[in-house]
Amino acid sequence: MYQQINSTVRVPKSMILAYILWFFLGSLGVHRFYLGRVKSGLAILLLTLLGSATMGIIIGYIFLGMVGIWLFIDLFLIPWMVTMPKSLMISSTVTMMHDHRLDNDIIDITPKDK
C-alpha cells in the first residue's frame, strides 16, 4: 500500500523579472500573474480594458487613474510579494488574528471593589 504525500514546491521568483514585467506590462497585471496574485492581476487587467474602452466618455480616465495608483503602490510592494509566499501571508494573518483573540480572552475587565 502506498501513502500519498501532498507537498507544494515553491519556485523562487526573480525580483528583477517582476520589476521588468511591472515596467513593460504592468497595466495588464502580468507582474501579479507572475507572482501568483491571479485575482488582483485580473482586476488590473479588467480595469485597464474597461478604462481603455470608455475613454471616449470621460469615465475611462478614472479607471486608468486607478490602475496608475495601483501600479505606483506595486512599485513598493514587489519586494514583499517576491519574498513572502501567498500561503505564508495567509497563514501569518490567521495566526495574528488568532493570537489577538487569545489576548483579549485573557484580559479581565470586571470592575474591582474599592
UniProtKB/TrEMBL annotation:
It is a multi-pass membrane protein. It is found in: Membrane. Residues 12-62 form the TM2 domain. The keyword Transmembrane applies. Keywords: Membrane, Transmembrane, Transmembrane helix. One of its GO terms (cellular component) is membrane. The keyword Transferase does not apply. Its main location: membrane. The chain crosses the membrane at residues 16-35, 42-63, 69-88. This is TM2 domain-containing protein. It comes from Sulfoacidibacillus ferrooxidans. The lineage of its organism: Bacteria, Bacillati, Bacillota, Bacilli, Bacillales.
